[in-house]
Specification:
CATH class of one domain: Mainly Beta
Shape: elongated
Strand content: over 45%
Number of strands: 53
Largest sheet: 7 strands, antiparallel
CATH superfamily of one domain: Galactose-binding domain-like
Radius of gyration: 31 Å
Length: 576
């Protein structure tokens, strides 16, 4: 994009051309005079003025970054350890590898480990005695973590006493194998037939709760008792279900190895929408029970049930997210949107549109109320209808492994080109312009009042327009920046000469700027001026005339600088 004031032609044939509006990144051979072909650490914040991005803030350095989530503070995985900004202690131990995390209520869910961290604890104490001594006037519902080290146990005040409500960190899945009897029992205080599993010392409540859907296996007396079924009551060593849930012999069935398990499906992508967790893997979509991260197999015919469906189209799901209040699932060549208010009327509607490119499942992010993500054709903008490409400025270069984030207005995406070089690009929805920042390889972004970026070297940055950096964050040094304009041919097929450059720039104290020229794509940049000033002013740069077919201008700088206008005095020569 460029904007010119009217050209001034002097009697000697020299033409003055004035550029006062500077556009964004445009890596195309068809770029017009003065459009920006390449850049480093530039920003559109001051558009149409040309200026570098603002400095980032380093929040912390992580030894082996395996995951990140911004929510009520922020959480990260360092190797096998789960940590949070609110605690100096490790919150849990995971397997070593990249993680996907999502939030439902007070629970953070971590895949593929199928672990959870319950948030909201107001403090940590070594013992219940220490808790009681320190918190002398608790409020009902207050939750505290208790223990000498992780995993901690959570206690809540019920108004009269502290109650153990389970571990702060643990597994979503649960399993217990016992010897016991499937027998008659009770339900709701009344006698009931063939509805109870009894095992001495089982203490079922340590593993399960009423309402859990569990899979029973290992039954040999009547194999039809191996099924998935919902627990209705737990009473010590008695596990109770609806009457006649089982087939038993007279006096009950004694089994030596009954396995009770609560399972969570394997999923590649997971997110929250309308008080459920949604996820997908292969060709199948899943939703948890309403408000319950632990149950994915509850099918009671109620509005709170879990949900699962196979969509039956070619290819596996490549990404998923919540957008405009709908669960959205993507394959490379299709988009599925889930309509409905409860499992009985959930409907997966497919549109044959460009979905998320394989390997770019972390690219979706919402900026300016529009969902951006990496498709096979490049970055697209999706508003609920047909995705619209925003990738024209990237020319013929193709990218993979995209990871996206947003501050609400700008879409940030880190991606790799075919030469295995990483790039961090920013799309500003206010100006519809792309800018390239640097070669940061992001593995995750997150928003919690500020935009966080975790890079592959373990650095956790605050990036963008930082309003309030946390205590201890370190601002990076002077930002090195550059901008390289496309070929100037001056709409003239003849040889031409550049006799003078005039720039109007502002440099803050300590900032520097250098101007270079390259003639006829020679590959050699010639430095023509080096600037350093403490205030806004104009600079005239005389140049020894050199005839050429075309030329390029490059500007490099350190620190804060602004370019307000670029004026060229050019004269036309012959065609040879």
């Amino acid at each position: 994009m460029s904007s010119w004031l009217p050209n001034m032609i002097y009697p000697d044939g020299i033409t003055k051309k004035i550029q006062v509006l500077f556009g964004g990144y445009n890596n195309n051979d068809s770029a017009q005079d003065g459009e920006i072909r390449d850049m480093t650490n530039m920003s559109g914040d001051l558009h149409p003025i040309l200026a570098p991005r603002k400095p980032r803030y380093l929040v912390r350095t992580i030894t082996k970054p395996n995951g990140f989530l911004a929510h009520d503070g922020y959480y990260w995985v360092d190797g096998t350890g789960l940590y949070s900004s609110s605690s100096a202690s490790k919150r849990g131990t995971l397997t070593d590898g990249r993680k996907t995390m999502a939030v439902l209520g007070l629970h953070i869910v971590i895949l593929p480990d199928k672990k959870y961290l319950r948030t909201g604890a107001k403090g940590t104490y070594a013992s219940t005695a220490a808790l009681s001594a320190a918190v002398t006037s608790p409020s009902a519902g207050d939750v505290y973590a208790v223990g000498a080290s992780e995993p901690y146990e959570l206690y809540t005040w019920d108004g009269t006493a502290w109650q153990d409500i389970g571990p702060e960190f643990g597994s979503i899945e649960a399993e217990k194998t016992v010897s016991g009897t499937i027998q008659d029992g009770t339900f709701a205080g009344e006698a009931a037939q063939a509805n109870t599993i009894y095992s001495e010392g089982a203490a079922w409540a340590n593993k399960f709760k009423a309402g859990d859907a569990v899979t029973i296996s290992g039954c040999t007396a009547h194999e039809e008792n191996n099924k998935t079924i919902i627990i209705r009551e737990i009473d010590g060593d008695y596990l109770r279900f609806y009457e006649n849930s089982f087939v038993i012999g007279e006096g009950g069935d004694t089994e030596t190895s009954i396995k009770i398990s609560r399972t969570m499906p394997d999923m590649d992508f997971i997110f929250e929408n309308e008080n459920r967790l949604w996820g997908c893997k292969g060709d199948r979509i899943y939703a948890s029970k309403l408000g319950d991260i632990f149950n994915w197999n509850v099918f009671d015919g109620l509005s709170t049930d879990s949900y699962a469906v196979d969509v039956g189209s070619a290819g596996d799901f490549t990404g998923a997210c919540s957008y405009l209040g709908y669960p959205c699932f993507f394959k490379e060549e299709s988009i599925y949107k889930l309509y409905g208010s409860k499992p009985s009327n959930f409907t997966a509607m497919r549109s044959a549109s460009l979905g998320i490119q394989n390997g770019c499942g972390a690219s979706p992010a919402i900026a300016g109320e529009v969902l951006f993500y990496m498709a096979r054709t490049g970055i697209v903008a999706y508003s609920g209808g047909t995705p619209v490409s925003t990738a024209a400025p990237f020319g013929t270069v193709r990218y993979t492994d995209a990871v996206g984030g947003s501050d609400g207005t700008k879409y940030y995406v880190s991606m790799k080109d075919t030469q295995n070089k990483w790039h961090l690009f920013v799309f500003d929805t206010r100006t519809n312009l792309w800018h390239r920042e640097d070669d940061a390889q992001a593995i995750a972004f997150g928003w919690n009042g500020e935009l966080y970026m975790l890079t592959s070297d373990g650095k956790l940055w605050l990036t963008g327009n930082v309003r309030a950096a946390p205590s201890g964050a370190t601002q990076e040094g002077a930002v090195s920046s550059s901008v390289e304009f496309g070929d100037f041919i001056e709409a003239d097929p003849n040889k031409k000469g550049l006799s003078k450059l005039q720039i109007r720039a502002e440099l803050t104290e300590g900032a520097t700027m250098k101007i270079y020229l390259q003639y006829d794509s020679s590959g050699t940049w010639v430095e023509i001026k080096s600037l350093s000033a403490a205030k806004k002013r104009s600079y005239y740069i005389p140049i020894v005339p050199r005839r050429c077919d075309h030329f390029r201008i490059k500007i490099t700088g350190t620190g804060e600088w602004k370019l307000y206008s670029l004026v060229r005095e050019v004269y036309s020569g012959s065609e040879v």
